[in-house]
Amino acid sequence: MVSKDSELTRFRGESSSAKEEAARQRLEAEKSSAKVAQLEAKLKDVQSDFDCQRHNSEATRLNLEKKLKDQA
Predict the structure, then answer these.
(1) Biggest CA pair distance of the chain
(2) What single DSSP character describes residue 72?
(3) Which phi and psi (to 5°) does residue 28 adopt?
(4) How far apart are CA 33 and CA 8, in angstroms?
(5) Which candidate among 20, 31, 38, 67 keeps its CA 20 to 30 Å from the CA of 1?
(6) pTM of this prediction?
(7) pLDDT tens profile 29-47
(8) Phi, psi angle pair for 24, to nearest 5°
(9) Cα-atom radius of gyration of the chain, to the nearest Å?
(10) What 3-state class would DSSP assign to 1?
(11) Burial 10-47 (b: 16+ CB within 10 A, else e)
(12) CA 51 – CA 57 distance, rounded (Å)
């Protein structure tokens, strides 16, 4: 009888440890998902800034080419 009680206690302890580990991994996955979403938003902002800079540089280049043509 004693061995069954100790076996049951050990099983409950292992079960509790497994539940704690699963909860820890779930929390870690949620944190990772939040970090990914944050980085995706930042990437979108950087891409938007880059598109604006590219557009502005192209407009400036065309404007300068036009001025050079007009001077000639």
Answers:
(1) 106
(2) -
(3) -65, -40
(4) 37
(5) 20
(6) 0.63
(7) 999 999 999 999 999 999 9
(8) -65, -45
(9) 31
(10) coil
(11) eeeeeeeeeeeeeeeeeeeeeeeeeeeeeeeeeeeeee
(12) 10
